[in-house]
Design brief:
Blueprint: H1 2-8, E1 14-18, H2 26-38, E2 44-49, E3 64-68, H3 73-83, H4 89-99, H5 103-114, E4 118-119, E5 131-132, E6 146-150
Parallel strand pairs: 1-2
Antiparallel strand pairs: 2-6, 3-6, 4-5
Helix pairs in contact: 3-5, 4-5
Amino acid sequence: MLPLLADLAEEQPLLCVVDDAHWLDKASAEALLFAARRLDAEGVVMLFAARDTYAPPFPAPGLDELRVGALSEAAARDLLAEHAADLPQHAHVQILDEAAGNPLALRELPVAQREGQFTTRRRSAGTRACSRRSPTASRACPLPPAPCFSSPRRRPPTTSR
């Protein structure tokens, strides 16, 4: 795998993205992590996205980690506006409340709302309630922040709030 990726990066830098890395089988994860630790000098950067809750662990020793948190209120409203312009304002309020800044939820909940599969329930203090019954909504919602891992020496840009 190392020579193949290095050859591909000869013409231009290469970015390899592995989403939902926590679902990789052990052998694949080990092979990709091995490559990620050695290919930085070759112009190859590997980015692994993995959840740290509601999923199997994805240990990635030796790789830099960036925890991705919730979107700001303004960014969440903008993203929802892109995906739910046809929904009434009260639906926007419910979705924003339930999504808690989670970009995936802000994209999926409008679809579930249109299909009549999104309902909110009364919740106790400090808890969120979300009920979705669609093929793409197989896990609890909203999803918590997740870590991102990248090849060593390549520092992801930092953002300030």
